[in-house]
Design a protein that fits this description.
This protein has about 325 residues and is mostly beta strands. About 10% of the residues lie in helices and about 65% in strands. It contains two helices and 17 strands. It starts with a helix and ends with a strand.
Length: about 325
């Protein structure tokens, strides 16, 4: 159950980062207002850009139903490349590789999830409006272990994630400050395979599980940038209201010999909130460093992510 939730949430995280990359294009503050004040949008300059990120996530899920609660720690990296194919039209491609350590202490269980995700994003600008979209496909391997009291029972099985996001935003600027309202719709579908434990006392088998989630995200970003020497320092923060319109978590049949029980999957609360902040430093017209914080707050789950990245344009 914990592994399925981890795959689903990592897919959502990558989708939302891709959506941000698409909507910011070649840097939202500079793309929309390259000269400060009331300057018009630039139509020349670099055509390509690439970026690399390293991130860490710490999340906790409280006990619910048959689930004993867990702690998860994820470390990962992202590499991507993008291009302006037409004035106001950007496309990009990214790869995300991560490892997640899952601990379910009350059940004496742990697991490792290695997940690879590939994503495509695109955006179209029309004046202050931006429409962005992103799609991802991911595949990974889960290795679990359970302390049976008389040895460790181990299992290995596969996981897959597919998802899509579409977002509409409006860029409103006043001098060097901005407010950007956003509305997005997201869909993810995660599948974890069945498994048969080996080793330990009374190894069990379990059927696979499928998770589907559709949700709406409504919020806004606020930001301001300063020109310091020949460098641009940009600070922003955002908040989102999250409505999980539909969540479908299939049950898993866990069997030990002729005995079996049905265990229901775990999900998020119907409503929640996301919040975060970003600091960006443009060293030159083509090189930018940035750091992000992203928090997700639900009734039974909290997640905190930190990201360090670099973007190069040419």
């Amino acid at each position: 159950m914990s592994a399925g939730a981890a795959v689903t949430n990592l897919g959502s995280n990558f989708l939302e980062r891709l959506g941000d990359q698409a909507s910011s294009g070649f840097g939202s503050a500079l793309r929309k207002n390259p000269g400060g004040g009331g300057a018009s949008e630039a139509t020349d300059g670099p055509v390509f850009r690439s970026w690399g990120e390293a991130y860490g996530i710490a999340s906790t899920t409280s006990a619910q139903g048959d689930f004993a609660g867990d702690h998860r720690q994820t470390w990962g990296g992202v590499a991507g490349i993008g291009a302006r194919v037409l004035p106001g039209v950007n496309v990009g491609f990214s790869v995300d590789q991560s490892h997640t350590a899952i601990d379910v202490p009350l059940a004496l269980q742990s697991a490792g999830l290695d997940l690879t995700q590939v994503g495509l994003n695109a955006s179209v600008d029309k004046g202050p409006w931006t429409w962005a979209m992103a799609v991802v496909h991911g595949f990974g391997k889960i290795n679990s272990s359970r302390d049976t009291g008389f040895g460790t029972a181990n299992a290995g099985y596969d996981a897959h994630i597919d998802g899509a996001l579409t977002e509409l935003s409006y860029y409103w600027s006043v001098d060097q400050s901005r407010i950007v309202p956003k509305a997005a719709f997201e869909y993810v579908r995660a599948v974890t395979g069945g498994f048969q434990e080996v080793g330990g006392l009374d190894p069990v088998s379990a059927t696979g599980a499928t998770t589907e989630r559709s949700r709406i995200l409504l919020g806004a970003e606020i930001g301001h940038y300063w020109i310091v020497g020949q460098k641009i320092l940009d600070l922003s923060a955002y908040g989102k209201f999250v409505d999980n319109l539909s969540q479908d978590f299939s049950s898993t049949l866990v069997s030990l010999g002729p005995e079996s029980i049905t265990v229901q999957g775990i999900g998020e609360s119907r409503y929640g909130a996301d919040a975060g902040a970003a600091l960006s430093l443009s060293l030159t017209d083509t090189v930018r460093l940035y750091a992000n914080y992203d928090g997700k707050f639900r009734a039974a789950t909290q997640s905190h992510q930190g990201t360090l990245g670099v973007e190069v344009k040419w």
